[in-house]
Queue: 2 jobs
Job 1
Amino acid sequence: MFVPCERGGGAASSDFKGFTLLVPAVSVGNVGQLAIDLVISTLNMTKVGYFYTDCLVPMVGNNPYATAEENSVELSINAEVYSLPSKKLVVLQIRSPFIKNKYRPFCQALLSWVKSSKCARVILLSSSHAYQRDDEQLLGTPLRYLLTPDLEKAVGGLMQELKWKEMEKVAAYPGINDSEKVLHIPGGGITKLLFTESCSKGIQMAVLLKFCSEGDNIPDAFALVNYLNEWLQLIKSEVNTSSQWKIPSSWRLLFGNGLPPALF
Amino acid sequence: MATFFGEVVVAPSRAGVDDEESAEEAREETPEDREIRRELEKKREIDVLWTLKSGAPAGSCAEEPFVCSKFIVAIGHNAAAFLSSFILDSVCWEVVGVVKLWNEWCRTSNTTNVLPTDSFCLFYRLISDPTVLLCQCSCYVAEDQQFQWLEKVFGCMRKEGLQVTILSTCPVADYKTQESTLTLPSPFLKALKTKEFKEQVCCPLLEQPNIVRDLPAA
């Protein structure tokens, strides 16, 4: 599934042993994907390959992180991998939704690639419908985390220090039997599936998610990427961290074209 | 609604996986479900039939992949009509293959003698240079069939030294630009090219954040 780019790096550029892998879930507001765009754009990450998969709707365009004429003509497709060896970081960006009935095979293929590439841990950026929060979740921070048991051992203490809130479980049969609790991430796309599969396969995975709604999700993306930064310290966190992240050129015209002058 | 690079879905929520769909999948698949799913998949399978040598029976693929130097693919009614009007004729080109498919939007004609209003997907070869291939695809190839189309068609060709040109059309209203599309002189051409394509492109390149989707993208 993973096809490396033919660059000078060759095999070395696709050696991800011990790296942290960031993956977005295609979820409400596309917040995970927007956050990943910010990471790739700000850290100026290099594309090292792509996923050749029949599970995602095909799309293609020119380089979404173009900064000048020279680097704007590289083709970009729906699932690409970028890396920053200096921070032992590798990132998968997913740009289109799953084809019907194909999300399970994609999850299987992704997790098997995680194992074969020997990434140390995976961080899944996701989101969940804000309207499904209960009374307690309406108050306080809209950001949540989850850790698989294997990663809990390694970083559970850090989460306590950062005072992060773990995603609450909900009653399996609300109103009837409140004792049985299950994980429920409405609007989270493949988040729950990837998380439960990682738990059972012994993969070190963390999920970072934000409660949000569809609309202008740029502020949600900033909130999520700053949340991630509290842990990974990808950029120096100063008082006004929003201005430290570089918005990619492809975020232009998110709300449509210019207006026809004849309108006025 | 906000959109971003790669936004191709028109569903109310962009999560891509409906909660109902994922709940359905969570239930165990009964043998009947499996049978239904298999039948549906079979119905949506694409058949690529080649008649490489005139007189030879139609086959799904030659024993060895055939040599192809240029492959021009026209996707959609407009592009197909362009080829019919300006390029194709019965003197220089011969039909060498057909794709048979079915989906909710269209079913391809069974014959190679098609009307412009039919849905079809035909392959032609230049008689004077049999390595030049042309494909007219006026039928809609559904999301789940695009990859199959790609693998089955390109699977029959030798890819060394192959130059592929894809012709397609998109509505001007979908074009993202600083000015309004009302004042844009249309129609206009834009191109995307791989870095291996070294020749001169005859029109400007497609600017960010515009994208191409479906079969042309595949």
Job 2
Amino acid sequence: MALGRSFEDMCAQMYYRGKMFGFVHLYNGQEAVSTGFIRLLQPGDAVVSTYRDHVHALSKGVPARAVMAELFGKTTGCCRGQGGSMHMFSAPHNFLGGFAFIGEGIPVATGAAFSSRYRHEVLKEASPSGGLDVTLAFFGDGTCNNGQFFECLNMAQLWKLPIVFVVENNLWAIGMSHLRATSDPVIWKKGPAFGMPGVPVDGMDVLKVREVAKEAIERARSGEGPTLVECETYRFRGHSLADPDELRKPGEDVDFKLCATLPCCIAFGLMCKFFGFFISYIMLKHSSLKGIIRKSKRSGCCR
Amino acid sequence: MLGVARRKIGLGTFSSPILGQVLQRIRPLGSVLPENYSTAAKEITVREALNSALDEEMSADPKVLLMGEEVGEYQGAYKISKGLLEKYGPERVLDTPITEAGFTGIGVGAAYYGLRPIIEFMTFNFSMQAIDHIINSAAKTNYMSAGQISVPIVFRGPNGAAAGVGAQHSQCFAAWYAHVPGLKVLCPYSSEDARGLLKAAIRDPDPVVFLENELLYGETFPVSAEALDSSFCLPIGKAKIEQEGKHVTITAFSKMVGYALQAAEILSKEGINAEVINLRSIRPLDRATINASVRKTNRLVTVEEGFPQHGVGSEICMSVIEESFEYLDAPVERIAGADVPTPYAANLERMAVPQVDDIVRAAKRACYRAVPMAAAA
């Protein structure tokens, strides 16, 4: 999470200095969702994301240097500079992109989950995870009004695919408020309409996200089928670095910020949960918070 | 190879009685040259050719699967996948809900993992609901991922006008898909084309758009023993010279190849020897064969069923100008569908789609043998 935040902040700096260009969408504020879910995955599991994919890639294990180089358009980037900010791909990490069109990644993720089941049942290949390889599809609140979302909820449940649909509901689709765009804004309730469980979770609390994620991923892995998880979160920056972000009220993020500023969240977690449990899943080798942040800044920054 | 294949339209195999009736109405006038090839082992319909290709490839590689509407229990909307569900089971022949965007994307996602899905569109008009996945998540991914992820997927189905199905069911998408880098676009004509090109498409590591033609499904063509072998495969990007000639080159694909061959026969009676090229592959286009032919004949007529603006003929014309300009003795003639949404009424539809006469007239114009339409001023 610390790496994700400092990485995104560095992207903003580089962008405004003209080193990065085009469309860049930052993940500031939503780190708990990425960490809470992706850090639970096995290497054979897959992640499909949207254009807001930098931190998802980092969580999945793509080296920060490779992601940053990609943003700079260099051949040392994970896609040799050919993909860019919105199209991060890494086959060794099973990170399947990086899609610009909202909703586009959902069928692709459903297909990856389909292939996981196919490989297990038709080709009789055993996965090292002991069950089915799981796919996570990340997308936003705006996507939940798109036809492809519903088509895939239907087919994933119909064919009992090992997928978790993770909604990062940050209440805003560029400048369109979720409440203005959606007839029924409660997204997790749409899961049961297709026969799958729908679960809401506080997306600013990494430990709560992890708890829900654990159950959903295990469900998928054991072949019980998909889950729809709605993470209530917030993005602290605009939709993209080119977004003037004039429509959101300035004080709106206060509630989210109280829980989500990095030191605060981690400290809160430290106080509320067992110390050992916390350390063991965030970063194994570091003993201090300052150490974590220092190391992430060093490894993440491009030299 | 050389000459016109003897064809008969197998009406009995059509599942829809309406289609059968309409096909009778638009059967080509006059008999086709019945050159019998005693060396040809067998005659099969395009439908049988496609079915056997699917069957053999699914049998050879367990990663090949078929997904689409009505492909399973209905035996295929046009019976192309007949018998496959019974043979391979519902895990490999999947009947989908009516969700083109969804199931096309699912096919693409599965292909990211090395499965080899064949996505069937009931007609390519419906592919427009899924075109984002064909282009953005299939065609472009190998490039965007710098070669990390290849997408060995085939999108197939009938393309172009059928008979009286109206504007929304009649469009030809060859030019649309051939426009996109990262896609391969194939258009078979005969049964041999259908078998060889579909097998090549399924074995290809990149996304392939395979444009069939509904009106050709029931047509019978002779196939050699070699073509019936399960290892048979045609190269992608290679056109076939159906008939050699020396006065004018006529390029065509899919159903128009048949029309071009008929036109060539009519022209030969007037002393014009036409060379008919069956393109087979729209992307990559076999520019070498086309240009070699034009350098020999010095005149070119391009034929396609789709709308004229930005069509396949435009690209062929440009290719010839770029590579063989000095060899042209006449402007390139372009025959395409009318620039209008396809009408429903049979007589209007006939006027909206190229007919044999149009090709004959264009060839004569290219040979400076045209009869003026209006009296001179």
